[in-house]
Write a structure and sequence with these properties.
Blueprint: H1 3-9, H2 15-25, H3 27-30, H4 35-44, E1 53-57, H5 64-67, E2 72-73, E3 76-77, E4 79-80, E5 90-92, E6 103-107, H6 120-129, E7 133-134, H7 137-146, E8 156-158, E9 162-164, E10 174-180, E11 195-201, E12 209-211, E13 213-214, E14 216-218
């Protein structure tokens, strides 16, 4: 994957344009916000980097199950895999702290192509060492809503900032990811090329999945 492609993906629309995109999709209604509130936040927020920042809604306001169907590729809506009915129970890991606000920004978003074929267990400490924070699932969905080209054949990403915690406190072995369906198995042929929210084992490698991360979050 050329470096120029990964670099280009870091450039985002302006915050006001992102706000209008969310409003167009009805994300503000999912989140219990008015269009005016979203527009006001975007107008007042200060973009922390030259490439811009990603506008995200807190997952407690707009869960992954509600956001995934808003994704589009080849005019096909996104979906959550059938064996991930607990998708909204995947919450931020202990090292990921989300702003205590309905709307917030992420800077320096990157797909993590250079970590393709790493396991999630290997990628997390490497990101921490680089002073980067892994995206949670809903942040990854927000990124693709604004930059659909963040999903490419053979170049998609995991969002290992989200994990499911079991009743005794241990982590479920699944890690969420966003990629493109091949239309096989339970996905159904009609979903070929659709954006797909699924999962991978924390100890497995995938040559076509990087690890999405950011440099910072701010409310």
């Amino acid at each position: 994957m050329p470096t120029t492609t990964a670099t280009a993906l870091r450039v985002l629309p302006g915050l006001r344009a992102q706000a209008e995109r969310l409003i167009e999709l009805g994300v503000h209604e999912i989140a219990g916000l008015t269009a005016a509130e979203v527009r006001a936040y975007a107008a007042a927020a200060v973009t922390p980097t030259g490439d811009g920042a990603l506008l995200a809604v807190h997952p407690e306001r707009a869960p992954a199950s509600a956001l995934a169907p808003l994704l589009r590729r080849d005019d096909k809506p996104g979906f959550v895999v059938t064996d991930m009915t607990d998708v909204d129970r995947f919450t931020p890991i202990d090292t990921v702290v989300l702003p205590d606000a309905p709307l917030y920004l992420l800077s320096g978003v990157d797909r993590g192509d250079q970590m393709a074929n790493w396991t999630p267990d290997e990628a997390l400490p490497a990101l921490t060492e680089q002073a980067r924070t892994p995206l949670v699932l809903t942040e990854g969905i927000h990124w693709v809503l604004q930059r659909p080209d963040a999903l490419e054949r053979d170049h998609c990403f995991m969002t290992i900032g989200s994990r499911l915690r079991k009743p005794k406190g241990t982590l479920d072995a699944r890690t969420p990811a966003i990629w493109i369906s091949n239309g096989t198995g339970r996905d159904g042929r009609e979903r070929r090329n659709a954006p797909k929210v699924g999962w991978c084992w924390a100890g497995n490698r995938h040559t076509w999945l990087g690890f999405a991360s950011a440099t910072a979050r701010q409310g």
